[in-house]
């Protein structure tokens, strides 16, 4: 008799048949005696179609009205899933974000959940109903409809699980869990039975697009056990949870990579306080997000400065940087959009020295030159030439023994 | 400076271009200094598509969830219209039925409006906003989403106009007003400048499908001046209002007809109390609606009983009637589904005698035999052979001078 919140994404509810399959799965949990709250996204393609419709009326649709429009996508799914549940004898009630009062701030299109009134849901659960809630949407304190931004349904699921003190929040997707790395790159990649919130945050932000990062933060903050699993299979998925002191954590949990970055360097900048803020300030004003930043001091009182941006903004960033270079009388500006970032992530790093050098040696053994290095408490990232992506990931996967369950080689 | 409620149906907002045309029209009223509240239906085809989607999940969708699903249709239109208004510099705010608290009973799929909280709308109007409200939907006292049934957007418009004490409720459709009769039958048919609520009720129920009958009742009850006009043209339309004592009402305002009826007769039934209730009771139990009812007493203590039903239920009604006839030992049952009902409607009848006989004479002059007659205070209906429909309507249109503005010939 557990209370479980299940979240199904757009692909999982993409057709009437898939909605029926979700209903069958929910029913199996009900039959075991579990209370189930289901959070759903819009059917796949619906949100994009609505955005297209909005743009046919207004090239830059007012955000308040766009949220009113987009919220209909999830509202349709909740009704259809409740119908499918009723059809197989599972009493169900659907609710929009407004109806269960998912209170958010009023940042239309990217609202944040402030509070959820769980009274009505508890009442329905007590009556034996499955409660189906629209993901991605809420309501501000004036009753305006808001949306949480792309992937916001994950956040709705976790926030509901936190408010309801659910035993588990299950995120159903089209993959069956979190892997040590992308199986398309490394066929030996292995599904992790469990991973910590911190590791998941690093993996998610580095490009393992399994879960929306805000939902992981939320789950970590409110201690909601989060499970990623497939809506098409029956496996146990991956449990994302706090570090378990009883068991020795593996050194490295996974290898992430990101092909969407480009690197820019400005050389021979006067090495004085405020110079980094000045350069990055100009980049920021151009609305370009910066990822990795590395600075080295040269011998002649000048400094070299390298950073990465999204590849789509490479040209724009290069133009800004050239202008800044002229103003600062910097020696040289260069860039490269044929790079890739590879990262190893693992909480085990905290208590084990030498992980970084083990990583660098593995890459060197394959003749891969490292262009940038950046480290955090549980992560080491390197930038290498794009053509070394597969080779680098496989070498690291093998070095840290990720294909094997249990303790890694070291 | 008037307060106007405008309602646009599904065809009027059927494409992004048409939504933009509606926005332009609203803007013209705003530019004159009017306050405007707009009620919209779902884009044409959307509601049907949603019903189809529901049936693909559940052959007989639960009514509560069907309402949640269908309400998304109007919600999409309000957002799109508000965007179109903002685009042309007209500040606008969209609201669902739930957001402006259109309180209804909880009869899902056919809910009735109980109360509207107009505070928020007045506040927005004061700020100079156009308020766009979703038609067809409301919310019950537990916060469940309800819908008013097909054509319910007209009712939303009128109810809002009543709550806001609007100066006029304008219903935009694909016709440019109420006509003296169907122009496809009588090319001389003329648009009426004005008509009374009572006449409109009789015309609507008799088959002039311009306005939803509930909305006319509502407008009459709350003294809301109602105007029917075209969303594609610029004419003044037809004003539906209370009888104006200052001006002499025309004898006859319009001629309605209904081809969807069939006639059934049971002859030689014992003429005793309760017999009509017994016969019609059996028909009612079979869920068949009866329209006209005529009873004649014969000389031999038996009675003949004739009534009309919807043509689609003719066979079913005939079967019921035959069974009843056996039980009552009636002499004979007969029927005819090749009939048509023609009605003349006009409040002027109240104060003028001889209208009915003038009607009968006009039909007789054309050699049209009358099979049934039924009268009310402001209406005379006859049933004639189907083939006489056009001839009968034209003869009556001419007899009562409906092609001419002002007073009729008499």
Content of β-strand of chain A: 25-35%
Q: Helices and strands of chain A: which structural class?
A: alpha/beta
- Percent of residues in helices of chain A comes to 25-40%
**Biggest sheet of chain A: strands side by side, in what order?**
3-6-2-1-9-11-12-10
By CATH reckoning, the class of the largest domain in chain A would read Alpha Beta
CA(first)-CA(last) distance of chain A: 42 Å
Please, what is the average pLDDT of chain A? 90
> Radius of gyration of chain A over alpha carbons?
24 Å
Structural commentary:
The structure is a homodimer of 410-residue chains. Chain A has 410 residues and is of the alpha/beta class. Chain A has helices at 16-31, 46-57, 63-87, 119-126, 152-164, 197-205, 213-221, 275-285, 314-328, 355-365, 389-399; strands at residues 3-8, 35-40, 92-95, 102-104, 113-116, 130-134, 137-139, 145-147, 168-173, 194-196, 226-230, 238-241, 254-258, 261-270, 290-297, 302-310, 332-336, 339-345, 370-376, 379-385. The two termini of chain A are 42 Å apart. Chain A binds chain B through residues 16, 19-20, 50, 53-54, 56-58, 61-62, 64-66, 68-69, 71-72, 75-76, 78-80, 82-84, 86-87, 92-94, 96, 98-99, 120, 143-145, and chain B through 16, 19-20, 50, 53-54, 56-58, 61-62, 64-66, 68-69, 71-72, 75-76, 78-80, 82-84, 86-87, 92-94, 96, 98-99, 120, 143-145.
Attribute tags:
alpha/beta, 11 helices, four-stranded antiparallel β-sheet, VC0802-like, 410 residues, 34% helix, homodimer, 27% strand, eight-stranded mixed β-sheet
């Amino acid at each position: 008799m557990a209370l479980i919140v299940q979240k199904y994404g757009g692909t999982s509810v993409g057709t009437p048949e898939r909605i029926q399959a979700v209903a069958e799965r929910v029913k199996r949990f009900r039959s075991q005696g579990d209370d189930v709250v289901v959070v759903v996204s819009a059917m796949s393609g619906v949100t994009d179609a609505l955005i297209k419709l909005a743009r046919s009326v207004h090239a830059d649709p007012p955000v308040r009205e766009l949220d009113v429009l987009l919220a209909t996508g999830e509202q349709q799914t909740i009704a259809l899933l409740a119908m499918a549940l009723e059809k197989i004898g599972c009493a169900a009630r659907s609710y929009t974000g407004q109806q269960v009062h998912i209170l958010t701030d009023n940042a239309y299109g990217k609202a944040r959940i402030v509070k959820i009134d769980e009274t009505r849901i508890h009442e329905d659960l007590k009556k034996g109903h499955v409660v189906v809630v629209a993901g991605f949407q809420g309501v501000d304190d004036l009753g305006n409809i808001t949306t949480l931004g792309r992937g916001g349904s994950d956040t709705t699921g976790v926030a509901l699980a936190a408010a309801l003190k659910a035993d588990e929040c299950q995120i159903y997707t089209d993959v069956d869990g979190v892997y040590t790395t992308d199986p398309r790159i490394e066929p030996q990649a292995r599904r992790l039975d469990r991973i910590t919130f911190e590791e998941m945050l690093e993996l998610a932000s580095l490009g393992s697009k399994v879960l929306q990062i805000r939902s992981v933060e939320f789950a970590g903050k409110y201690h909601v056990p989060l499970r990623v699993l497939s809506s098409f299979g029956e496996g146990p998925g991956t449990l994302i949870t706090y570090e378990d002191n009883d068991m020795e954590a593996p050194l490295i949990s996974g290898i992430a990579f990101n092909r969407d970055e480009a690197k820019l360097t400005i050389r021979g900048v006067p090495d004085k306080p405020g110079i980094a803020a000045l350069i990055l300030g100009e980049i920021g004003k151009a609305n370009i997000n910066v990822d990795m930043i590395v600075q080295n001091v040269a011998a002649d009182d000048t400094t070299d400065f390298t950073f990465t941006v999204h590849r789509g903004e490479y040209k724009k960033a290069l133009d800004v940087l050239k202008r800044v270079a002229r103003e600062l009388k910097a020696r040289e500006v260069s860039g490269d959009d044929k790079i890739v970032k590879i990262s190893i992530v693992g909480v085990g790093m905290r208590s084990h020295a030498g992980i970084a050098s083990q990583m660098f040696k593995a890459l060197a053994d394959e003749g891969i030159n490292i262009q940038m290095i950046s480290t955090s408490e549980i992560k080491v990232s390197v930038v290498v030439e794009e053509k070394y992506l597969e080779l680098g990931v496989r070498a690291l996967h093998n070095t840290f023994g990720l294909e094997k369950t249990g303790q890694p080689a070291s």
